[in-house]
Design goal:
The complex is a heterodimer of chains A (416) and B (266).
Chain A lengths: L1 E5 L28 H20 L4 E4 L13 H11 L4 E8 L6 H14 L4 E6 L3 H7 L6 H17 L4 E4 L4 E5 L15 E3 L3 H10 L3 E4 L3 H17 L9 E9 L3 H8 L20 H4 L7 H11 L12 H6 L3 E4 L1 H15 L3 E5 L7 H26 L27
Parallel strand pairs in A: 1-2, 1-11, 2-3, 3-4, 7-8, 8-9, 9-10, 9-11
Antiparallel strand pairs in A: 5-6
Helix pairs in contact in A: 1-13, 2-3, 3-5, 6-7, 12-13
Chain B lengths: L7 E8 L2 E9 L3 E5 L10 H6 L4 E5 L16 H14 L5 E6 L1 H12 L4 E7 L19 H8 L9 H4 L6 H18 L9 H4 L8 E6 L7 H10 L4 E5 L6 H4 L1 H12 L2
Parallel strand pairs in B: 3-4, 3-5, 5-6, 6-7, 7-8
Antiparallel strand pairs in B: 1-2, 2-4
Helix pairs in contact in B: 2-3
The chains are: A alpha/beta (416), B alpha/beta (266).
Chain lengths: 416, 266
């Protein structure tokens, strides 16, 4: 079992008028942005990651969104680079870089290799297609989103694994000299994980590659369905998938008393609006959320029937109580939280989990208390459970063969 | 297909290695109509009027309506080059052409490549050049219905507006709009709805009679773009229609028909 920590690193500024409102995504001027507040928050979130490692988390998860207050990581590789140097043991899991918005993926290959080397081989490199927001914010062509994702992915793998120089003359990317003077420390390359919310195409593509799939705060039922689809598809491609292939992120906050835990837990819903944070999704622009061609016509139909958590993107607004009821929010003291986590682990059987904490309007103190209690009581208990339930991460069991593996930073490869 | 009351036909034709859905109607010499970014809106009064003495040929562009998508197509240049081949196969040589908005841009791009393909050129609220004042409205920032509503100056004053944009669009209509936006996006995303070098290339149209028609209050492609077309094409004429948005053909139908017919018979 791999246990990770995650926060969107939300903007928090009581003076901004954005806290606790159902604001409209992509319509908030950065005139509201106070760099003094930004400076303090960036450092706060880095401090929390360092403490999470100290408290025993195996992994620090980072993500990226653009032109929006709900996630301050516009450049996830900056956060990962800093953590590479200031942390020691934890995996740095980027979920993920938004491949289609990169016009120069060679530059990305270089950055990720540097992060892997500086961190002594602790990088997990996740890739996403990104939503309409991301394409819109960086003016990436939405109708080629999937093509660019797949070509950039293939290019990165080749840039990491094939001795240069070589040429790349693709449809979307063109290089006459691929020879990055930086190579990943982990050989052949860092693990690639794929986070997802609702896309059937992505689940199938991920299973075909036997990459670990991370479901992001989806309800337990649809999450299980997505995992089942993953395992079925992986089997079709001859992979022996298991707990190592699937991961789940959801909201977990621990506190000193039940009352305090509920009071702080409700803060998930009272920060700046976040389309991915149930209960405080805010308003979204449907034209931008589904830019032309971003989702294939087939997938539009499937997601409507199979996976779409009804009302995703702006009309859901599930109250706190409902989310506690269906386990998508778990808050409490360690004593009450641990059995609830067990329920999730038994039901979904993920080999890796991420506790989404310290988000919304939660303060630094709120986060630090939770991290301390997780370290003291929750993480050790979850590790025991994972042993009992035989939940293995992709650093313990190979995602293609199902065989045990060594967590390795391999020998450098000779480039003849 | 055709019905007794219907004066137009629709067929699928094989052209330039692909399939196009083509609407046709009327009598007389062919007049090529190139639709805008939302596709052919159906047979309207201006079609009816123009079809009295011309045979209208209205192809759905690749990816629009029933016309096949062309996966390799990545830019307006690809579309213009391919479409010239399609016109060859449609036997449309030395033909009069009217292009609306995105279709006007396509007509202009084809004309700078091959001016002799056309006899006369009419550009209506054409995209393709960057306006000197204002910006081209971002159609991808709003849903299709809002875009159409925003494209006219006063929808309530446009008799055919509900035909183009029903209050409650059918699922089929929504899907048509969605596929239209996808196909428009493919050729217009970046640079958005224009090609920076086009004004430098337009002087090649000096021997092609060209009429430029614009709504003075065009909220989609500001009229300053029309002035750039006019300045860049020697001998062209520019007609600016007052109290009119992006769709003179339905907002000021009589005036529009008068201008087009006058030009085509000159």
């Amino acid at each position: 079992m791999l246990i990770g920590h995650f926060t969107e690193q939300p903007w928090q500024d009581d003076q901004s008028g954005l806290m606790g409102t159902q604001s409209t995504d992509l319509s908030i001027s950065n005139a509201h942005y106070n760099p003094q507040v930004g400076s303090q928050l960036y450092n706060r979130y880095l401090d929390e990651k360092v403490y999470a490692e100290e408290m025993g988390f195996d992994a620090l998860m980072l993500n990226e969104h653009h032109s929006t207050p709900f996630c301050m990581q516009g450049v996830t590789n900056v956060g990962a680079s800093i953590l590479a140097r200031i942390t020691n043991k934890a995996k740095i899991i980027i979920l993920g870089n938004v491949l289609p918005i990169w016009d120069d993926p060679l530059w990305l290959a270089e950055q990720l290799s540097m992060i892997d080397m500086i961190s002594n081989g602790r990088l997990v490199s996740g890739f996403v297609r990104g939503g309409g927001r991301e394409s819109y914010a960086h003016n990436a062509p939405p109708h080629f989103n999937r093509e660019r994702f797949e070509e950039a992915h293939d290019f990165l793998i080749k840039a990491w694994t094939t001795p240069g120089p070589f040429r790349w003359e693709g449809k979307h990317y063109h290089y006459r000299y691929v020879n990055p003077w930086a190579r990943p420390l982990q050989q052949p390359h860092p693990q690639i994980w794929i986070p997802s919310t609702v896309s059937v195409e992505t689940v199938k593509w991920t299973a075909e590659k036997a990459y670990p799939l991370v479901l992001l705060a989806t309800k337990l039922g649809p999450t299980k369905e997505a995992f089942d689809l993953y395992h079925e598809t992986a089997a079709e491609f001859g992979h022996k998938s298991g707990t190592q292939n699937v991961a789940y992120l959801w909201k977990v906050h621990v506190d000193e008393t039940e009352e305090k835990a509920e009071e702080v837990g409700r803060k998930y819903l009272s920060g700046v609006s976040n389309p991915f944070l149930a209960g405080n999704e805010g308003q979204t622009n449907p034209a931008i959320m589904s830019l032309p061609g971003h989702t294939s016509r087939t997938s539009r139909r499937l997601s409507a029937t199979a996976f779409g958590p009804a009302g995703r993107f702006g009309t859901n607004r599930r109250p706190y109580e409902d989310q506690v009821e269906d386990y998508t929010i778990i808050t409490g003291t360690p004593k009450t939280v641990i059995p609830k986590i067990r329920h999730v682990l038994e039901y979904l059987r993920p080999g890796s989990v991420f506790f989404w904490d310290g988000d919304g309007a939660m303060s630094h103190d709120d986060q630090m208390r939770s991290l301390r209690l997780m370290g003291q009581e929750v993480i050790p208990a979850v590790r025991e459970m994972a042993k009992e339930l035989d939940l293995k991460s992709p650093f313990e069991v190979d995602t293609k063969t199902g065989e045990p593996i060594e967590d390795s930073v391999a020998e450098p490869v000779n480039a003849d | 297909m055709t019905t007794a009351s219907q004066s137009w036909t629709e067929e699928m034709v094989d052209v330039a290695g692909s399939q196009l859905q083509v609407f046709k109607g009327g009598t007389g010499d062919p007049l090529l109509i190139i639709h805008d970014e939302m596709g052919h809106p159906g047979w309207l009064r201006y079609h009816q009027e123009l079809a009295k003495d011309r045979t209208l040929v209205i192809p759905m562009l690749p990816g629009f309506g029933e016309s096949a998508e062309l996966d390799w197509m990545m830019s307006m240049h690809d579309l213009a080059n391919w479409f010239l081949g399609a016109l060859d196969d449609l036997k449309l040589e030395n033909v009069d052409v009217v292009g609306f908005s995105l279709g006007g841009w396509l007509a202009a791009e084809m004309a700078v490549r091959c001016p002799q393909q056309f006899k006369r050129l009419v550009l209506v609220g054409a995209a393709g050049v960057r306006p000197s004042e204002g910006e081209i409205y971002d159609i991808f920032q709003v849903v299709a219905k809002s875009y159409i509503e925003n494209s006219v100056l006063d929808a309530s004053a446009v008799p055919e507006f509900k035909e183009v944009c029903p209050d409650e669009p059918s699922p089929e209509q929504l899907e048509l709009w969605e596929s239209a936006k996808e196909s428009a996006c493919r050729v217009s995303w970046r640079p958005y709805m224009h090609y920076p070098a086009l004004p430098q290339l337009l002087p090649r149209l000096k021997r092609l009679p060209t009429k430029i028609i614009w709504g003075r209050e065009d909220p989609i492609v500001p009229v300053s773009a029309g002035e750039i077309y006019h300045k860049s094409i020697p001998g062209s004429s520019l007609d600016i229609i007052n109290q009119c948005g992006h769709r003179p053909e339905i907002e000021k139908t009589d005036e529009f028909i008068g201008l087009v017919k006058g030009f085509l018979t000159s």
